[in-house]
Write a structure and sequence with these properties.
9 helices; single chain; mainly alpha; elongated; three-stranded antiparallel β-sheet; two-stranded antiparallel ribbon; Arc Repressor Mutant, subunit A
């Protein structure tokens, strides 16, 4: 009896097993990436093996494969074995950009104008764009957008007057950045601001005289 009519192709069961294996491999790779992304120090293969419930040898092979794929794809980061563990780090080929970022501190440092605007919002909130511009003497739109993007300032309501201008105030992130519990913990301005009597005296002295 000839068996030439029998198919040599894998059956449905074999294809299903192969698909499940590929899915498990992708999940394991994604899990390694997720853990290494949030880790503050290198993670040992043994710990990764415990988390992924697989052998240390399999984890080491998986990490080598991931590192090779990142290199082949030309990613800006790499998976490196450091101090007995694995970590994600910036690729050495882009060290110049990283160094410039760290030394300049552009994304983390606020300009003097931004700090002045933030101080006005913190002490006078809620405050509108027009009020900020009037207090600082310059248009504050650009700086205000920056502070909103950084998460230090947010819309807190609208003015009840004509036009219902948007009012801005500081955020929880602002308090966290300064290590404050509430806005009442801000240092008082009394030592830097003239008294009401002094302000009134200055206004009288600088008020233009009207003709009789």
């Amino acid at each position: 009896m000839s068996d030439c009519g029998q198919s040599s192709e894998p059956g449905p069961g074999t294809e299903a097993q192969s698909g499940e294996h590929a899915t498990r491999a992708r999940v394991a790779e994604a899990a390694v990436e997720a853990v290494l992304t949030v880790a503050s120090e290198p993670v040992s293969a043994r710990l990764l093996a415990e988390l992924l419930e697989m052998s240390v040898e399999r984890v080491e092979t998986l990490c080598r494969e991931l590192a090779a794929s990142y290199e082949e794809e030309g990613r800006g980061f790499s998976l490196a074995r450091v101090a007995g563990g694995y970590r994600l780090q910036s690729h050495g080929a882009y060290a110049g950009y990283v160094e410039r970022f760290v030394l300049d501190g552009a994304p983390s440092k606020l300009s003097a104008a931004a700090l002045e605007t933030l101080a006005v919002v913190a002490y006078k909130q809620p405050v509108s764009r027009a009020q900020l511009s009037a207090i600082r003497g310059v248009n504050a739109d650009g700086v205000l957008r920056l502070l909103v993007a950084r998460g230090y300032v947010a819309e807190v309501g609208r003015d009840r007057g004509p036009g219902q201008a948007v009012l801005f105030g500081t955020t929880q992130g602002f308090l966290e950045k300064l290590g404050l519990d509430t806005l009442s913990d801000l240092p008082p301005l009394s030592g830097f601001v003239p008294s009401a009597d002094t302000v009134e005296m200055l206004e009288r002295a600088l008020r233009p005289e009207t003709g009789t």
